[in-house]
From TrEMBL:
Record bears the keyword Acyltransferase: no
A Pfam family of this chain: DDE_Tnp_1_6
Transposase DDE domain segment(s): 64-155
Domain of life: Bacteria
Alphabetical UniProt keywords: Plasmid
Species of provenance: Staphylococcus aureus
Name of the molecule in the record: Transposase
Length: 157
């Protein structure tokens, strides 16, 4: 028997764990992910070079960078993480960043290629679900109990 809500800290917030809890166990995860708190900061949300803040043109499946260049879809890709879990991505790439006036701020200093964005839409979906769940009063309260019920034990070991 498992409770309706599976509660854990950010160390367990992964695409693989969310998928198992939802699909295999038919339960609701209340597990933050590594960037959960940082994602909500004003600094993070206002960083124009953070690709998560770029405009997305759904019709043309492309992002628009701070210099109004279009970063279009190029191909599908996947990566296996260290546990062998396959993560699917969509790869977007700008056609030409060589003469861009914002290149220095936008890219790594010695980058020889154009700007690339790898989007894992499955992961983005799970993050949105977690954000939504943890903003609801009932589930927010359940999650907040985790620190009270679990973590004090470490102080007495």
């Amino acid at each position: 028997y498992l409770p309706e809500y599976i509660v854990a800290d950010a160390g367990y917030g992964s695409e693989q764990n969310y998928m198992a809890i939802i699909d295999d166990f038919n339960k609701t995860p209340l597990i933050t992910y590594g960037m959960f708190i940082k994602d909500k900061t004003r600094k993070f949300k206002s960083d124009i070079f953070n690709t998560q803040n770029w405009k997305y043109d759904e019709l043309n499946d492309e992002f628009i960078c701070p210099n109004n260049k279009r970063i279009g879809f190029k191909r599908y890709a996947y990566r296996n993480d260290r546990y062998g879990f396959k993560r699917d991505f969509k790869l977007y790439e700008c056609d030409d960043c060589s003469a861009c006036s914002l290149r220095q701020q936008c890219m790594k200093p010695n980058s020889k290629s154009n700007k690339k964005i790898m989007k894992n839409y499955n992961w983005e979906y799970f993050k949105a679900q977690i954000n939504q769940k943890l903003s609801e009063p009932e589930t927010k309260k359940i999650y907040s109990q985790r620190k009270i019920d679990v973590e004090p034990v470490f102080g007495f070991m």
